[in-house]
Amino acid sequence: MEKWVVSAKKADFKKISEQFGIDQVTARIIRNREVIGEEAIEEYLHGSLAHLHDPKTMKDMEKAVSILQEKIQRRAKIRIIGDYDIDGVQSVYILYSALRECKARVDYAIPDRMKDGYGVNERLVRQAAFEGVDTILTCDNGIAAEAELALAKELGITVIITDHHEIPYEQKENGEKIFHIPPADAVVNPKQPGCPYPFKELCGGAVSFKLVQALFESMGFPPERALTYLENAAFATVGDVMPLTGENRILVKEGLKALNQTKNYGMRALAARNQIELGKIKAYHIGFVLGPCLNASGRLDTAYRALKMLLAEDESAAAEYAGDLYDLNVSRKEMTEQGVKQAVKLVEETSLKEDKVLVIYLPDCHESLAGIIAGRIRERYHRPVFLLTSGEDGVKGSGRSIESYSMYEEMSKCKELFTRFGGHPMAAGLSLPREHVELFRRQLNENTALTSEDLQGKIVIDVPMPLDYISKPLIEELNLLEPFGKSNEKPVFADKNIHILSLQVFGKNKNVCRMQVQSQGGTRMNAVYFGDTEGFLDFLAQKFGNSALEQAMSGKDSGIRVSFIYYPEINGYNGRESLQIIVKNYC
Known about the structure:
By secondary structure, the protein is an alpha/beta fold. The radius of gyration is 26 Å and the shape is globular.
């Protein structure tokens, strides 16, 4: 069971509450998100488009704009080379649509996940040269393609890189980093050395949006014309799991407003196919409903299908593409569930269960699903997980980690085992010969310094808050904290000794548990738990006995008292509103 910890960050919550006209509970949550100082709190609560930074302060931005203007005037052939994930597809859409508005002679290419792998490659470069392309414009990739873009320059192609990934480097013995930036006519990436742009955590789609803002301004278009692409930058930011802090928070907050009124046929059709009303789309829907449909295209088919949906010029074509993406995502979910079951079976029935670092080899698993399955297994066992599959040239895999384990560092200790590897502390990708799989597993576990405490999951509670304190105004105020996502997670509250007065299980899959509960202070309200209801009922039966559980399920006082981690919400039913809590965890 996870360890529950209360966040204990200090601040003058009374002063913040009075100054900004918010509840002290809200003030505590803001402090827990490391938003410190009057200016930062004001921007967090009321940030608007006026708070966005000037795109022209990005290194090489004006150079990139100047090159593009010259190419547009000359009618030179421009090719955008993107990527096959959400961020890559949205980046291509933004640049392609905007350049067409500028009357550019432009087309696009997206690598095939299985044949090409990630980013611009030699095949795409040579194809561009053969087809008379004058300029390659990368988006969401390119910063690590030193050899490939050197080839493009040798072939006489102008190169503009727009990217947001880390700059490749090698470290000397004295700790000095030597950065390797590909030869290009302009490099637009806020993470590159010497770039004065103040916010470094933009995704590829947001960098593309910034380029469009600067280009449109230079061409004399009104500023609001570039804002057409704000919804795409927001979608890409959430889809690429970027931190929802600073400028990203504003991009997503304002972009969601635009998305909820979108005129894009593809976006409207995808929302409709997933039964989401326009006006009700939140960051959650991008991350867990709409975004996965775009991703499924690049995973199981081709990302061109997702791009064509966004580019659709009538409702009929958009609906057809949206239906295809929806069906692909259904297949992806089924294949993922199957892979998760196989992985769990291997862990439970073999010596893998004893390992601190899980290396799971599922040869028949679709390689594009390895990362998703690794993430699910990581959540279940709270251990670093590498999920390996059979590829054309040996074994391929993806890793997902926990906070106390840096995947890239640990892989570097046995780098001789890999044909290719890369990543960062929390995620990684790799290729290795089949005969090295068991050796890889053994070496990772021999080298690891993980302790049993590291492997215990931890839930950080924002505010221990009695149910008696919940009110409609407080819940409405908590909406100010949206959009929720990475680095701005949905707040977590907790209360103890909650009396379960009655309990019922609903849902087609019996995965909804609805309770009537009472706090120590006497407040009664509904509580709803979604998830492993069977595990929850087993827990109650073990702790309080089958008789008490049966009493609760028949609506009789059972004496069952538990602690809940929860989030409060307003439940609207038949025109009537009531307060309820959504239960996240229990003990």
